[in-house]
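Appendix B, Record 12. Input sequence as logged:
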Amino acid sequence: MKKNYLFILGAAAMLAGCSNSEVIEQQGEPGVENSEVAISLDAMTNIKVDQTRAALDGWANTPIRVWGLDKDGGNWSDATAKLFAGRGYAEGTVAKGGAVTLDKQYFYPMNNAVNFSFYACAPNPGNPTVLDNKVIVPFSINGNNDILWAEAHAVDKTVGGKTYAGYNARYLRNDGAKPQLTFNHLLTRLNFQAKKGVESDSESVLPVKIKNITITASANATMIVAGEGKGTLTEVAGTTAELPVFFRDDTYATHGVLNLKDDLSLSEAGTVMVLPRAGAYQVTVELAADGITDPIPASTFEIAAEGVDGFLAGKAYTINLTVYGLREVKFDNAILTPWDKVTDIIDTEVN
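Logged structural output:
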């Protein structure tokens, strides 16, 4: 009899627990089924990625990496692991229309107190460092890779007197808008154009071609994906390199020399994407000329942007180069200065 009493009491407690949970759930979300909600993302496509790498041209299959982190802080390592089990982040691609496809289907955690925000970067970086309040990733810069950063914050939505303040299953079940990642360029883009200079005596000038253009800039950087300073790149000290300009995916080595137009109009001379900086960039232009086998000394100079802020992320700058030909060194007459005889006589005794 005692055993039967205990069993009935336990069953009653279980029923009471289910009933209370159901009442609480219905108070906050009347008539909404407590089911899992799949994570679905979109991406803004209003940034221009033309004339960069073909892989990023028009959002065609752009690779991205996404983190879901606690909007209100807390332990981010734990939060993102709950959302994207295993690695703690999701890999994906952005299609031309802005739709995001993740590497597999993920779901918001059930009955979870975390209100998520989403952060993404492109292309896929190296191994991340996830701290309690910051995510940092490394990137290599070769002059032809665009680097993008994005975030998505939920807009507070109030339903039945209850406010949903971040992306989670309850927010989406109450008609909250799905996350939309807004991407920004983090590099500076330099577009080079070149033309012939006006020569005073064109007959004695040997026309030249552009053989190569390089920029002295940092080849490695770290991005703060989330946390204080989010969406910024910082150069890795000691990684300065000569970055080549590109014609799409071709350098001058594969594209060939650039012949300048005889009508003195501008020709596209290549594009390079570099880390933003407040100061100037050092540019080196190598020239070639028909019939000249000896190396022509390269021209090295600095370019600076107007204004105190220098070169900014997400900005494209056009640099027009005026290139003059090689002028032959000639001497009309050689003049030998005669000896100037000194009138003073030097007397000395020997032995």
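Confidence is low (pLDDT under 50) at residues 1-33, 48-57.
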